[in-house]
Amino acid sequence: MDVTSAWADAMLSLWLTQLMPELAAAAAPAQTSAWSQVWAGTAPTRPEPASSPMGVPPALAQDFARAASATGLSPQLLEAVARQESGFNPAAQSQAGAIGVMQLMPATARSLGVNPASAAENISGGAHYLAELLGQFKSLPLALAAYNAGPGAVEQFGGVPPYAQTQHYVRDILASLATGSGAATRA
Asked: How far apart are alpha carbons 111 and 24 in whole angstroms?
């Protein structure tokens, strides 16, 4: 359809809907062009964005919101940890045996009373565990290091352990928060 016919289609549609509404229904083609929909004020609404700035799949967004609300942590923090841990993959399993979106170790999941195979419970358990670590260490970098390497390693070294993987983990999550939709750790 060229510009002239699109314009004519839009003007006809506008005239029909504004001046002769009773004819509009009878004369409207089964499928109208996008221009005529816009001119007639019936253009479809735009869909909501598929995910958050962190890339959270829509199916998990409510789980992160609930876990954040229950723990007082920011959704962005939980999302950044999950993105780093599993890329939001509920079926992820590490070589060390960590399971799910937040990569909970089976013993940690048991102590939290959650099923790590359930995405919602895994996210909730990971949020509660991270909140406990923040309470214990009073520092986001130390809590993240403890989430990754274990609280014992953070206590043993008196800070972020000298493990390259843990240092990258902490740095990557903090950078993600700084460039994401917010750097707050608490809601």
From this structure: 65
- CATH number, domain 58-179: 1.10.530.10
Catalytic residue among 85, 121, 132, 155: 85
Contacts of 120 (CB under 8 A, 6+ apart): 63, 66
Contact 56, 90 (CB under 8 A): no
Q: Residue ranges of the alpha helices (H) in 20-118?
A: 21-27, 34-40, 58-71, 75-86, 106-112
116-168, pLDDT tens digit by residue?
Answer: 999 999 999 999 999 999 999 999 999 999 999 999 999 999 999 999 999 99
**Percent of the chain beyond pLDDT 90?**
66
**85 carries an active-site annotation:** yes
Domain boundaries, the chain: 3-40, 58-179
Question: What share of the chain in percent tops pLDDT 70?
Answer: 68
The residue whose two tokens read 């510009």 is 3
Q: What is the pTM of this model?
A: 0.70
